[in-house]
Design brief:
Structural class of chain B: alpha+beta
Shape of chain B: elongated
Helix content of chain A: 55-70%
Number of helices of chain A: 16
Oligomer: heterodimer
Distance between the termini of chain A: 72 Å
Number of strands of chain B: 5
Shape of chain A: elongated
Largest sheet of chain A: 5 strands, antiparallel
Largest interface: A-B, 82 and 80 residues
Strand content of chain A: 5-15%
Strand order of the largest sheet of chain B: 1-2-3-5-4
Distance between the termini of chain B: 86 Å
Radius of gyration of chain B: 30 Å
Chain lengths: 345, 170
């Protein structure tokens, strides 16, 4: 013999459930798969409708929100139909939650009551009591703390919730990876606070962080980027006369060495590096020779370059084959290209 | 004359919850301690003018607020009412939901005197209302216009009666 729980007992005795199942006669005005609307047999006025969910829920907090939203949409529709069919101008919606609030049947229901002028129903004219502001402030305090927790998901839905503060490391990583953010910070480094104020999302991210420290980091990142002029290098390789300083190549090689000192260094790269450092010395001699011959540096650079571009470009493809240099200079350029592709990984 | 609720919203007085569509504030002249008004952010005068989604959102907020009121203010129950239209007692022309916590022996009473109605009256009303309720949520189909037959109605020739007169003359 199965024990009947209190809820089932409640359900068995619940008159609304009986109406829904058809055990009890009723005057139905609206029905769908979730809710049922019937006329109240003890109405406050002609056309008083009670709208109930077909599932048994004792009070409003027990009703799932999907059912609630559907139910109140239908309530709006019923209110409109009442106005149209009975030619009234007003309706009252009324919910009683709990016996202390006047709930007579322990099954959640919304009452939709059509109202006319001077119909004698005074209960919905709420009294107005004067209260001290202090009391209101107290109540406000008591409620605000709890409410935000309860309503967080609703706020989050609308994107109005403040996002959890980002840790500083995460922020630094974000700046490192996100060039747009970095550029933005660099551009607005002088007036960062006002720039952040304009964008609430950024403001939330930077809230509570050491802005000075971050700006310093950004500056460092930017300056290292500037030194390592990718463009200048690629143009040199392609043979354009963009190098302004005579020792640009050397400086670039130095920088490349610096940048390329990554822990994962293949033995081939190491060999190249050693080869390069030797080569650097030779390059100096080369330059010295060209200067003495009276050609301007640009001309000197041009001579070795034009033959190289095609080869250099083809070798710039990710295939690393340092084992086939045709001339020393080609080898150097290959090395540069390889290091660049290696350093960029 | 501006709307009192919109004024309160702008002044941000006693706001306990706010989001894109709804705002909940403490009623300045409450019917009971903890009387809360939940209103639409955008001014909407009556229930019919509130969009469906906003309406359901508002009632869900009202539901949650009523549970916290129940817990925090130690109420015995809550009443949730809407006064829609002047005959219903709507005093502020801005749609709002009243959340009223109830306590023992408070001066409020929402019990009404039930009308005595006969079975026929109830049936009549049910039929009337049901007719309109069938189309809740979607438009009622417009009655198609009646198509008249294009039969040519021959007018009687005008001369007939004159001819008749002539014929009568001796």
């Amino acid at each position: 013999m199965a024990e009947i729980s209190t809820e089932d007992l409640q359900k068995e005795q619940c008159i609304f459930c009986k109406i829904i199942s058809g055990q009890t006669q009723s005057y139905k005005v609206y029905e769908d798969d979730k809710v049922l609307g019937v006329l109240d047999i003890a109405p406050a006025s002609r056309g008083h409708v009670i709208l109930i969910p077909k599932e048994h829920y004792p009070i409003m907090p027990a009703v799932p929100e999907a059912v609630l939203s559907h139910l109140f949409r239908i309530a709006k529709g019923i209110s409109q139909s009442l106005m149209k069919s009975l030619l009234v101008n007003g309706t009252n919606l009324y919910v009683a939650n709990g016996a202390g609030a006047g709930q007579q049947i322990p099954h959640f229901a919304v009452h939709i009551i059509p109202r006319e002028d001077k119909d004698g129903i005074e209960i919905f004219n709420l009294p107005h009591y004067q209260v001290d502001e202090a009391v209101l402030v107290e109540i406000q305090k008591a409620l605000s703390g709890n409410l935000h927790l309860k309503l967080q998901d609703k706020l989050a839905e609308q994107g109005l919730l403040e996002e959890a503060a980002m840790s500083e490391e995460d922020l630094i990583r974000l700046i490192q990876t996100n060039t747009k953010l970095r550029d933005f910070l660099y551009a607005n480094s002088k007036n960062l606070s006002s720039a952040l104020g304009a964008n609430p999302q950024l403001k939330a991210i930077f809230n509570g962080k050491d802005i000075g420290k971050i700006l310093k980091l950004v500056k460092e990142m930017k300056s290292s980027e500037d030194d390592f002029q990718m463009e200048a290098v690629s143009q040199l390789l392609k043979g354009k006369k963009k190098a302004k300083k005579p020792d640009a190549k050397k400086e670039l090689l130095k920088n490349i060495e610096k940048e390329s000192s990554v822990p994962e260094e293949t033995p081939e790269e190491r060999q190249l590096r050693e080869k390069l450092s030797l080569k650097a010395v030779n390059k100096k001699d080369m330059h010295a020779k060209s200067e003495s011959t009276g050609d301007n540096e640009k001309g000197a650079e041009q001579e070795p370059e034009p033959e190289k571009p095609e080869d250099a470009e083809t070798d710039e493809s990710p295939v690393e084959n340092p084992a086939e240099p045709e001339t020393e200079e080609e080898a150097d350029l290959d090395a540069i290209a390889n290091l660049l592709s290696g350093g960029r990984k | 004359m501006s709307c009192r609720i919109c004024d309160m919203m702008d002044a941000e007085k006693f706001v306990i919850y706010q989001d894109k569509f709804a705002i909940a504030l403490l009623a300045p002249q409450p019917a009971a301690e903890g009387h809360i008004i939940v209103a639409t952010r955008n001014h909407a005068p009556i229930l019919e003018s509130v969009p469906d989604e906003v309406l359901s959102h508002l009632f869900i907020i009202a539901n949650r607020i009523s549970t916290s009121v129940f817990e925090l203010l130690k109420a015995r129950g809550t009443n949730i009412t809407v006064n829609n239209g002047i005959p219903a007692g709507q005093e502020i022309p801005h749609f709002h939901i009243n959340i009223i916590p109830r306590r023992e022996n408070d001066p409020l009473d929402f019990k009404w005197q039930p009308l005595q109605m006969t079975h026929e009256e109830m049936e009549q009303i049910a039929a009337k209302v049901k007719d309109k309720c069938d189309y809740i949520g979607h438009e009622a189909p417009k009655p198609t216009p009646v198509v008249l037959d294009n039969k040519e109605i021959k007018p009687e020739s005008e001369e007939d009666y004159r001819m008749k007169q002539l014929e009568r003359m001796p």
